Amino acid sequence: MLAMAAAVMPMMAQTSLSIYSDGRVVVTGSLKIRVTNLDAPRRAMVLNISGSSHISADGTRIVSTGSYGGPTAGGLAFVFFHGRMVDVFDSSGTPVSETFDGHLIDVCKVLSS
Q: How far apart are CA 92 and CA 36, in angstroms?
């Protein structure tokens, strides 16, 4: 995992969060953020994380589909992802595995190179 000091600034945010009785979470709307490497401020990315994201959990697994920007349970400090991500945890809540099916950018790696 790369260590990098980063600033995350919302540029545009009009989002809606719906939480259902079965535990599903749906996030919709527009969200654009700027991520800047604080050690090299000219290194920055604008990410469009807009769209519909669906998150469901069953106690040992979290399944996310759609767009996502942030850290992962598997230890990546900051990613931009669009697709399907599955995180599996043991009974104590420790991450066991993480799989991605879609487009993933390791933002810290890109901004550090």
A: 34
Q: What is the pTM of this model?
A: 0.75
Would you state the structure tokens that stand for residue 37, as one six-digit string? 């490497």
Question: At 2, is the pLDDT very low, low, confident or very high (cuts 50, 70, 90)?
Answer: very low
Taken in order 101, 22, 52, 106, the sign of the CA dihedral is negative
pLDDT digits (tens, 9 = 90+) for 22-69: 889 999 999 888 888 888 888 999 999 888 889 998 888 999 999 988
**Whole-number CA gyration radius for the chain:** 15
3 state DSSP class of 2:
coil
Q: Where are the alpha helices (DSSP H) in 35-100?
A: none
The values of phi and psi at residue 56, to 5°, are: -135, 150
Look up residue 63 and give its amino acid: V
